[in-house]
TrEMBL record:
Protein name: Aldehyde dehydrogenase 5
Keyword field: Oxidoreductase, Plasmid
UniProt similarity note: Belongs to the aldehyde dehydrogenase family.
Natural source organism: Tistrella mobilis (strain KA081020-065)
Domain Aldehyde dehydrogenase: 45-502
Protein's UniProt keywords contain 4Fe-4S: no
Lineage of the species this protein comes from: Bacteria, Pseudomonadati, Pseudomonadota, Alphaproteobacteria, Geminicoccales
Active site: 273
Domain of life from the UniProt record: Bacteria
The keyword Oxidoreductase appears for this protein: yes
Database matches in InterPro entries: Ald_DH/histidinol_DH, Ald_DH_C, Ald_DH_CS_CYS, Ald_DH_CS_GLU, Ald_DH_N, Aldehyde_DH_dom
A Pfam family recorded for this sequence: Aldedh
Length: 507
């Protein structure tokens, strides 16, 4: 296939600058370009990228099609034998070094992320960069853990297993936490000896390219490639590509199903991290103040609720219900909604008009069906901001369990709060969605905590806390929340290697 990328604008990746480039320079460096084979290459077409807080077009991103995808996969395929042949600990050292280099450029990358996603720089973006770097450092130390086993099969036969890389891994990203999710996919893939083609989110591509460029400075050309473009064209071309040996996807349930079908068509392994409607159960003996803070952090209100693990169904024991609702409302009223780049801001914007319309549809439905809608905090009045994508943290009460707002992922700052009286019934209600990503339980009773953790159908259950993803802790959903795990050694071994059995008869 002829590769239709223009070489006129192609430029090699610049070596590490002594000082971190400014956020504007990072954005300027990735106008309509992909990262392919260690070079920035122009795509044949582009898409606008909008800063959600101002509505301003901050630039364009590549609208890659099959030709650009083909070039990226070819670069990854060409780089694979050399990368796979490198000692695993050396691969790991390079990946870890890239993690440390990301920390050196944290401030500029965080500004880019805040601009393109609308997430507040203080409460969200810097932390995302630190976690992304931590994931690279964590996996960078695991090169020597790519071990096989010996099997006591027959005394005159040496029987063993080895772990081999798969080849070219396609990693498809959403916009909400693109850097953490990128590193969760590509760090284990790379250390295991695979090369990668990342599909950036076309809505928030620049920080992804900039972080990948830092990795590219530490790796041989072509080991990490990034393309941007629409899901329907660029994403579909990548999942259908015959040289892609593994697909790892994070995004919505509907697209995840399409990606799974594309993998099935070629019989390649697929990992899916999809949506959620995670329950939070507050028992009568819970520490109220801790539980309220847990609801604020668990619902990811500072990320406008745009989180797959958001505690969006909050069940509070009837004895605590009024106090909890009052304290949570008062706490949310204190959050400052405003310019994502302002240090005073706690909560930025929704990502796009499309996402905003989806959230509003759910709220209209709730109101039409008689739910009580409690809007907290104040919308910003700064004339430099476009009010279109700002939304107040919102609580829904007096709503039926089978309502779409209780059953479906809204992916906005909207949490349902419902009272409960019977423990067995609330466990059943917590399990009554087709999702199973995460859950939290708030109680002073050890036996309630242990019982609930055993009975809740979710891949990540926490008691009296609400941590986000940790690199060394296995993470992934049950049911329609996904397939396979991310983070931890297990994810690297199970999802980015294949196991070979070798039997040597020495009789
Ligand atoms: P999305 O599914 O619309 O898009 C995700 C990515 O897939 C984007 O890069 C998109 O361009 C691409 N894509 C779209 N159609 C495609 C196709 N046919 N083939 C291949 N790729 C395609 O999701 P989004 O709106 O970007 O992100 C929000 C969703 O992500 C939410 O549902 C959320 O729950 C989910 N999410 C899950 C997790 C998790 O770990 N479980 C984490 C973050 C986000």
């Amino acid at each position: 296939m002829t590769v239709q990328t223009s070489t006129a604008q192609a430029a090699p990746i610049t070596p590490t600058a002594p000082t971190a480039p400014a956020a504007d320079a990072i954005i300027a460096a990735w106008q309509g370009l992909n990262l392919i084979g260690g070079e920035r290459l122009a795509a044949a077409a582009t898409l606008p990228v909008i800063a959600p807080a101002t509505g301003a077009e901050i630039g364009v991103t590549a609208a890659s099609g099959p030709a650009e995808v083909d070039a990226a996969v070819a670069a990854a395929r060409a780089a694979w034998p050399g990368w796979a042949a490198m000692p695993a600990r050396d691969r790991g050292r390079r990946v870890a070094a890239a993690g440390r280099a990301i920390l050196d450029e944290l401030e500029d990358l965080a500004r880019v992320l805040a601009l393109e996603t609308g997430k507040a720089i203080r409460t969200e973006c810097r932390g995302e960069l630190r976690t992304a770097a931590d994931i690279l450092e964590f996996y960078g130390g695991l090169g020597s853990e790519l071990k096989g086993e010996t099997v006591p099969f027959n005394p005159r036969m040496l029987t063993m297993t080895t772990r081999e890389p798969l080849g070219v891994v396609a990693a498809i990203l959403p916009w909400n936490v693109p850097l953490v999710l990128m590193m969760l996919k590509i760090a284990p893939a790379l250390v295991a000896g695979n090369t990668v083609v990342v599909k950036a989110s076309e809505e928030a591509p620049y920080a992804t390219f900039a972080a990948a460029a830092i990795l590219a400075r530490h790796l041989p050309a072509g080991v990490v490639n990034v393309v941007s473009g629409t899901g329907a064209v660029c994403g579909a071309a990548l999942t259908a590509h015959p040289d892609v040996a593994k697909i790892t996807f994070t995004g919505s349930e509907a697209v995840g199903q399409a990606v799974y079908e594309a993998g099935a068509a070629r019989i390649v392994p697929v990992s899916l991290e999809l949506g959620g409607k995670s329950p939070m159960i507050v028992c009568a003996d819970a520490d109220l103040a801790k539980a309220v803070e847990g609801a604020v952090s668990g619902m990811r209100f500072t990320r406008q609720g745009q989180s797959c693990t958001a505690s969006s169904r909050i069940y509070v024991h009837q004895d605590l219900y009024d106090a909890f609702l009052g304290a949570l409302t008062a706490r949310l009223d204190q959050l400052v909604i405003g310019d994502p780049l302002d240090e005073a801001t706690d909560v930025g914007t929704i990502i796009s008009a499309r996402q905003m319309a989806t959230i509003r549809r759910y709220l209209d439905l709730a109101e039409a069906d008689g739910a009580r809608v409690i809007r907290c905090g104040r919308l910003p009045e700064d004339p430099a901001l476009d009010p279109a994508l700002f939304m107040q943290p919102t609580l829904l009460t007096d709503i039926a369990d089978d309502h779409p707002c209780v059953q479906e992922e809204i992916f906005g700052p909207v949490a349902v709060i419902q009272p409960w009286a019977d423990y067995d019934a609330v466990i059943a209600r917590a399990n009554a969605t087709h999702y199973g990503l995460a859950a939290t339980v708030w109680t002073a009773s050890l036996s309630t905590a242990l019982d609930a953790t055993q009975r809740i159908d979710a891949g990540y259950v926490q008691v009296n806390q609400n941590l986000t993803i940790q690199p060394n802790v296995s993470y992934g959903g049950f049911g329609r929340s996904g397939l396979g795990k991310e983070a931890s050694l297990e994810a690297m071994l199970e999802h980015f290697t294949r196991k070979k059995t070798i039997v040597i008869n020495f009789d």
